[in-house]
Amino acid sequence: MTHYRAIWISDVHLGTSGCQANYLLDFLKHNEADQFYLVGDIIDGWRLKQSFYWPQTHNDVVQKLLRKARKGAEVIYIPGNHDEAARQYFGMSFGDIKVQEEVIHTTLDGRKLWVTHGDLFDGVMQYAKWLAYVGDSLYSFILYINRYFNMIRVKMGLQYWSLSQYLKHQVKNAVSYIADFEHIMAREARLRNCDGVVCGHIHKAEIREIDGLLYCNDGDWVESLSALVETTTGELKIIYWTQIHGDPVEVPEITLQPEIAALIKEVSV
User: Fold this and answer.
1) What burial class does residue 6 get, using C-beta atoms within 10 Å of its C-beta: 0-12 exposed, 13-18 middle, 19+ buried?
2) Which CATH number is 237's domain given?
3) Which parts of the sequence belong to the Calcineurin-like phosphoesterase domain (predicted)?
4) Could you tell me which residues come within 8 angstroms of residue 158 by beta carbon, excluding any fewer than 6 positions away?
5) Most C-beta atoms within 10 A of its C-beta, which of 155, 240, 242, 263?
6) Which structural domain, as residue segments, surrounds residue 150?
7) Is the C-alpha dihedral spanning 147, 150, 152, 154 positive or negative?
8) pTM reported for the whole predicted model
9) Which of 1, 85, 75, 88 is nearest to 44 (CA)?
10) Are 86 and 269 in contact (CB under 8 A)?
11) Contact by Cβ (8 Å): 227, 216
12) Where are the alpha helices (DSSP H) in 171-238?
């Protein structure tokens, strides 16, 4: 078990077949933190509205996070665009998980990091949301292919590999979009008098300096299988969890607390 000062995860997309819940459960089994930041798109309300899909492993992820909160970790949930319905609950808590619009995390060495999902600063989401829905449908189709592709890789003893991520990073326009997004987020962090930003949204894990600001993206649990962590010595780094490191995670089957069940239902309506 490894203990960190903080762990950031986002873009889990519970409620979709592309969600790699088994890998995330294994990650949560082997890692603890004083603070867990759920940086948006944890539940995919867009997909759940079309077709309700909620296997036991997705339920187990929720239970695992609730248990960490009950055991004393601070768990903060910052909704994104796919779970935007949860934004009406800013300032409330669900099973000891706090819902916030954004937060400032202070690192061990005193740096202030603005934590937000990032969709509110995405031009496509703000001015052409219909295009985002079309892109999401195409993306889901690629993930469907990717799921079976990786089932074959696992049987061959190979690590998880994302076909969708590979294709995205080969397309010039997609690469340009990512670069623009990163610079916008760094600029917004500066406007908030912060030393850097932690976000998700674009499914590309990254730590780098942009114009003197620290840009951190924790990636996702559909393509990258990644998390951002701050170690007990204050180091920020990306962890990739592309292999299951232990036995299958056993989470007792218990009924979700009414308020958590209500939140999941609200996001999917």
Assistant:
1) buried
2) 3.60.21.10
3) 6-204
4) none
5) 263
6) 2-254
7) negative
8) 0.78
9) 85
10) no
11) no
12) 172-191
